[in-house]
Every structure is written in C-alpha cells, then in structure tokens.
Amino acid sequence: MKYLPVLTKRDFVNRYDQGEFGNCSPTWNTYKLWLADADNYPVEQLYHVRNRVAGGKTYYDATQHGVTQIYDKFIHCNDEEQWYISAMCPTEKTLFQGEVMQTEKGLQLFYTCVPKPMREALKMQSEQVSGIMASQLLRYYLNPKSYDWLQELLDRYPFHVIELTALSTCWGTLPGYNTLFWEVRLGY
After folding, report:
1. Which helix (H) or strand (E) holds 165?
2. For residues 44 and 63, what is the distance between their CA atoms, to the nearest angstrom?
3. pTM given for the model
4. CA dihedral 22, 7, 59, 100 (to 10 degrees)
5. Which of 8, 117, 132, 157 is 20 to 30 A from 56 in CA distance terms?
6. pLDDT tens profile 83-98
7. How far, in Å, are 72, 108, 120, 159, 175 from residue 102 at the CA level?
8. What tens digit of pLDDT does each residue of 150-172 get?
9. CB atoms within 10 A of CB 135
10. Beta strands 127-130 and 83-87: pairing type?
C-alpha cells in the first residue's frame, strides 16, 4: 500500500508527530508541550531543537536550561511555530547512520559510521553505495525489527529519502528497535 508523498518539512513533522514513520526519538511538537513534560526526564537528558524548515538551523545537545534559552530567543522573534524538540539519542552509541532511497536504479545509500549528530558526521566522513552493497550494510547494522520496518517505509514511500540512525542498543519510542527514523522526504 502506497501512502501520500511527503511534500514539505511541515507535512513531515505533522505526520512524524502522529507516529507514521515508526521508531523515533521522544518528540514534542511545541515548546509548551516539552516544558510540561520536561520534569519526567532526567536533568542530564540532552535535547535537539529542530527546525520545520528544510535545511534550517538546528541545535544539538541542548540541556533543559539550554532549550529554554533557545526558545526565549526565538519566541521574541515570533518564530515559535518553526521549531520542535526531540530528546537527543545516545549519539555515542551510533553504529551507522545516513540516508537511503529506493530509485528506479535500485537502492541508494549515503552513510557514515561517525558517532556524532548526522549532519556533522556526514560532513566528517561519508560513503555512497548502491544495490547489494547498500542492502548488505543495512542488514548488518539494523536489527531485524528495524530492517523489516525500513523495508516497509521504502515500499510505502517510493522515491523518498529516509534518514536513519542505527545504535548499539535499542532506544526510542518503540521497544525492540535499534534504529531511529529521523525523516522521510520526497527524493531529489
């Protein structure tokens, strides 16, 4: 079964918030929702202040106080609706991350094994592979549950880029997955 294409970042964020794309980091659609829930997380939890604008500014590793400082800065600019917040995954446990897409030429994968936030990691060191090599790397790093779900996403969203991070542990909103699915967007 095919699903509606993801045409904009805002469309993606709304559907991500509904859980359409599977295992993800705990996420709050607004600062107020995050603030109401922040006390349920340990003080040492770090957060990622994310942008609803494709390729827009993002803030990694923000403490609870840091999130408030970032929001104070943007609330005064009336930009609050541009932002949402996710818990930082345990980046130090990253095994593999990147972007994968099924095209008419087969599976395409742009990836890194650098244990940093994805934007930084891909700039530091990255590889591009396709076909059987891409498939084998994904099978190696994603646990069976995560790999099966990725196959489902590739089937549901042809010609979409799927951003993912595979960890050495299961983590996220769904039990038993070692992979977080960060974004699904219409490909190039």
Report:
1. strand 160-167
2. 7
3. 0.92
4. 60
5. 157
6. 899 999 999 999 999 9
7. 41, 6, 24, 6, 26
8. 999 999 999 999 999 999 999 99
9. 17
10. unpaired
